[in-house]
Specification:
This protein has 978 residues and is α/β, with parallel strands linked by helices. 69% of the residues lie in helices and 10% in strands. Helix 9 packs antiparallel against helix 20, helix 11 packs antiparallel against helix 17 and helix 12 packs antiparallel against helix 16. This is Nuclease SbcCD subunit C.
């Protein structure tokens, strides 16, 4: 993958459109991106990442603030990137989602995210415009995810130093993202899930067997054993079969005894029944003979009652007529009393008087309706008077409201205009305040920066002196060692061994050293001391340079203005901003107040017009209604008479008509009932004579109720039937020769019952034994089959459980590493090998990475640790013990090695462009040379390396530069070559 051109608009700190030609910068294969802190260097890398993946590295992606705050409202935020990957050239254009002002009206609207991919290699393929399609295509071409790309192409600030010092869990999460080892975790989980399923199957099989054992023991009436086996099942089956044979024999014996006892009981019962029947027949015949006198009397009474039945119906009819006649007389008396209570005399012809009153009632009907309408009109007039008073007050109130509204509306419009002008001026006032605030901070920082410069210059002088002294000591020590070299060589001679100078095996006069002989160890210590002094000197020079730069920048920025001059200006600017902000915040409220007042004026005017119209209508209606009421009142007073109103008089006349009608009807009914009584008395006398009775009283005395007559017939029939039944029973041949003796039926019943109970107990025991034998046979067969089915399942589970333990780092796994951990450990070892070559070169052969498979603290999984081998001491050290500069070297080596490993692992595009973000400020001059040599090797391999740093030394080493200028209104980019 090689970048060609980057164009960004209103992105990050860049309010305008910036264009970067990477082809121009990549001529030498190395370029520098520098600028002040916070100027927007990392934002350019964010633009590259956003163009490729629609996201930016790290926590900046969570903020979702990619649009420049200083960009004009009509400028669209967008990033365009031209690149070549896998032999194809393409252009990616993306816009993030952000809030912008509405083009019409007030408020904000959401600008949706967009993405476009266009092919620039002459391909006829259509451009892609869907965000998901663009993302899948980019990931397919690069062969890596956005997490891998951010880690191996955009080497971020401090990320690898943190990775180098991270604990096992944190390092494991990053490696899983980079190398995609989720599939091995899925394999581990698959084995665990299969083991769980097989364990569940085994437990289900064992549970089925346990249930069958319990059911088998219950069927046999035994307690289930703790460990059931085939021998226990066989003995249980044999025991149940023997119990069944015993129950069969017992049931046969008791059944025969029950049959014999039942036959004896039936014979005794039959004889006792014949004796009982003979005794009952003799007693019944005696009772019938004793009741013969009563029977004759019952027959006479029954015959008389049957003859008297002819007078019952006439007698009932007469009683009914007498009741009706009495009721009619009472009704006439009640009607006459009503008329007397009303003060009306009793008329001779009540019907004629009722007709006369009805005529008078008809004449009052129309006046009743007029009286009802009169009351409604009076009520309506009263309501109209109240409405007239209400509308008059409302009109006066609306007139007062409308008189004060124009002045209030004018004041609201003036306040709104002030708020709008304050809001428009607020950005300029804030910008001026911020600029003055920055100048005040700069003026306050000048004395401290000057003091730091003095301290740095003093430190530099001391460091130069110490370095010069150390270098002179080193030169002197080397000269002394050269002077004593003969003695040093002679000290290594041995008899029979060749001289390293002349090769002779004879050493007649080896040189001897003095007391102050200098050796190789002394020289190494002196070299280390000189290098340490040089490192301190380099750091002191950088500190002086930085302090001078800060003082010069602060003085140039102030332009000759002092803190005393700037502070009052800042206070005044802050006061202006506060006042403008307070007015601007009230804009929405002022707009609402003005709109509400305009609406209120319109509403009040409409209400005033409506009230005037309503008041005029009420005046007209009330005057006309008052005249009508006065004319109608005269007629109603005459019709009312002595009653409170016409309706009351009409109601009184209506009640009088009802009383007269009731009296006429009662007199007519009374006359009819009297005639009916006389007719039915004659009919009763004729019916008694026809029935053969001398008088009506004699006929009525012989009458019996229907129930009593039926009882007489029933008693006579029962008496005759009882005598005939007794005579037939005594004549039965089966009772011939019966003696009056007692038979012991209870003893026969008791013996038969005892035999029956014994037989039923034996039958119940046989059924239980048969059922137990059947259940035991069935359950024993099912239990043996369950054991047979469980054996292979349990064996398969044991094999799977052992394999699952090995895959998950347990059991026979000697390393105690899961499959995923083992793969990550292998990748970590590969990463250590790739990074060690870089680290060894950049550290002059002193440091190399060493992969450790030991477990971490508190038993955490091993295989993910990278320690450092220090060749100076020959010991393995933790990466956490490295100094700041050494940590940067190790982090850079680890990052470059990881880039190589991930690129090879992903099988994606060749990464021809690499960015390194910050960290160079911790290196001394010699180490910086080695790092630059390493980056030169990357460049020699065809890669383009972009360094993001504010270290001034790099500006002298790297000719191709991107310089970011920072200002109050945003940043800009300048390309510098040579």
């Amino acid at each position: 993958m090689r970048l060609h051109k980057l164009t960004l608009t209103a992105f990050g700190p860049y309010p305008g459109t910036e264009e970067i030609d990477f082809d121009e910068l990549a001529v030498d294969g190395l370029f520098l991106l520098h600028g002040d802190t916070g100027a927007g260097k990392t934002a350019l890398l964010d633009a590259v990442a956003f163009a490729l993946f629609g996201a930016v590295p790290g926590v900046r992606d969570h903020a979702k603030r990619l649009r420049c705050d200083h960009a004009p409202d009509d400028r669209v935020t967008a990033v365009a990137l031209e690149l070549s990957v896998q032999g194809r050239r393409l252009r990616l254009t993306r816009s993030p989602e952000y809030e912008r002002k509405k083009k019409r009206g007030t408020g904000f609207t959401t600008q949706p995210a967009k993405a476009t991919l266009r092919w620039l290699d002459g391909s006829q393929a259509a451009a892609l415009t869907r965000i998901d399609e663009v993302g899948r295509t980019v990931q397919h071409l690069l062969g890596m995810s956005k997490e891998q790309f951010f880690q191996v192409v955009l080497l971020p600030q401090g990320e690898f130093a943190r990775f180098l010092r991270a604990e096992t869990d944190e390092r494991e999460r990053l490696l899983e993202k980079l190398f995609g080892t989720e599939r091995f975790a899925h394999a581990e989980r698959w084995f665990r899930e299969r083991r769980t399923e097989h364990h569940r199957a085994v437990e289900e099989g064992k549970q089925r067997a346990r249930v069958l054992v319990a059911r088998l023991a219950q069927a046999a009436g035994e307690e289930p054993p703790e460990h059931a086996d085939q021998e226990w099942v066989s003995s249980l089956v044999k025991q149940v079969v023997e119990a069944h044979d015993d129950a069969v024999q017992w049931a046969a014996d008791t059944a025969a005894r029950r049959e014999r006892a039942a036959a004896a009981r039936d014979a005794a019962r039959a004889k006792a029944d014949r004796i009982r029947r003979w005794r009952a027949a003799r007693a019944s015949l005696a009772e019938c003979l004793a009741a013969e006198a009563d029977r004759a009397r019952w027959v006479d009474e029954r015959d008389a009652a049957r003859s008297a039945m002819a007078v019952r119906s006439p007698q009932d009819a007469l009683r009914e007529a007498e009741c009706e006649s009495a009721l009619a007389a009472v009704a006439v008396e009640r009607a006459e009393q009503v008329l007397v209570d009303r003060g009306v005399g009793l008329p001779g012809d009540a019907r004629l008087e009722a007709d006369r009153v009805r005529t008078e009632i008809g004449a009052l009907g129309e006046l009743v309706e007029q009286e009802r309408k009169h009351r409604q009109d009076v009520d309506r007039l009263r309501r109209l008077e109240g409405e007239r008073r209400r509308l008059t007050g409302l009109v006066e109130e609306l007139d007062a409201d409308l008189a004060g509204l124009p002045a209030r509306l004018e004041r609201a419009r003036v306040a709104l205009r002030d708020a709008v002008e304050a809001g428009a001026a607020l950005p300029g006032l804030r910008a001026a305040r911020d600029e003055l605030s920055e100048l005040v901070e700069a003026a306050a920082a000048v004395p401290k920066a000057q003091d730091e410069l003095v301290v740095a210059e003093d430190g530099l002088r001391e460091a130069v002196d110490r370095h010069q002294n150390a270098r002179e000591a080193l030169l002197e020590l080397r000269q002394r060692r050269l002077d004593g070299m003969a003695a040093e060589l002679a000290a290594g001679l041995a008899d029979g061994a060749g001289c390293p100078v002349c090769g002779s095996r004879d050493h007649p006069a080896p040189a001897t050293g003095g007391a102050e002989t200098v050796g190789e160890a002394d020289e190494r210590r002196a070299v280390a001391a000189e290098r340490a002094a040089q490192s301190v000197r380099t750091e002191a020079e950088a500190a002086v340079h930085g302090a001078r730069f800060r003082v010069r920048a602060l003085v140039e920025r102030l332009g000759g203005r002092s803190l005393d001059e700037l502070t009052p200006e800042l206070i005044a600017a802050e006061e202006r901003c506060r006042a403008a902000a307070e007015l601007a915040r009230a804009r929405d409220r002022r707009e609402r107040e003005a709109a509400e007042l305009e609406t209120l004026a319109d509403t009040k005017a409409q209400e005033k017009s409506a009230a005037d119209k309503a008041l005029a209508a009420v005046h007209a209606e009330a005057d006309g209604l008052a005249d009508t009421i006065a004319r109608r009142a005269v007629t109603l007073d005459v019709a009312r008479g002595e009653h409170p109103d016409v309706l009351s008089r009409r109601s009184a006349l209506t009640e009088l008509v009802a009383a007269l009608d009731e009296l006429a009807a009662g007199r007519s009914e009374r006359d009819r009932c009297a005639q009916l009584v006389r007719t039915r008395q004659d009919a009763l006398a004729a019916a008694a004579e026809e029935a053969g009775f001398a008088t009506v009283a004699a006929a009525l005395a012989a009458v019996r109720p229907p129930g009593e007559l039926a009882r007489l017939d029933r008693d006579l029939g029962e008496l005759d039937a009882a005598r005939a039944a007794a005579e037939r029973t005594l004549a039965d041949p089966d009772l011939a020769g019966i003696d009056d003796e007692d038979v012991d039926v209870e003893a026969a019943d008791a013996f038969a019952e005892q035999a029956r109970v014994s037989a039923e107990e034996a039958a119940t025991a046989l059924r239980a034994a048969t059922l137990a034998a059947e259940r035991v046979g069935e359950l024993s067969a099912r239990l043996r089959a369950a054991w047979a089915d469980l054996a292979p399942v349990e064996a398969e589970y044991q094999e799977l459980a052992a394999l699952t333990d090995v895959v998950n780092g347990r059991g026979q796994n000697a390393r105690r590493m899961s499959l995923r951990s083992y793969v990550l450990a292998a990748k970590m070892a590969e990463l250590g090998v790739a990074a060690s070559a870089r680290l060894s070169t950049m550290s002059h052969g002193r440091y190399r990475f060493v992969h450790s498979a030991a477990a971490g603290r508190h038993g955490t999984r091993g295989g993910l640790s990278l320690d450092v081998l220090d060749d100076y001491s020959g010991r393995v050290r933790s990466a956490k013990t490295l100094s700041g500069g050494e940590t940067f070297l190790a982090s850079l080596a680890l990052a470059l090695g990881l880039a190589d490993v991930v690129a090879a692992e992903s099988g994606g595009a060749m990464l021809d462009t690499l960015f390194v973000d910050e960290g160079f400020g911790t290196l001394d001059a010699n180490t910086l040379d080695e790092v630059m040599n390493t980056l030169d090797e990357l460049r020699a391999g065809g890669r383009v390396v972009g360094i993001v740093s504010h270290v001034d030394e790099l500006r002298h080493r790297i000719p191709a530069q991107l310089h970011v200028h920072k200002s109050r209104t945003g940043s800009t980019v300048e390309v510098r070559m040579g």
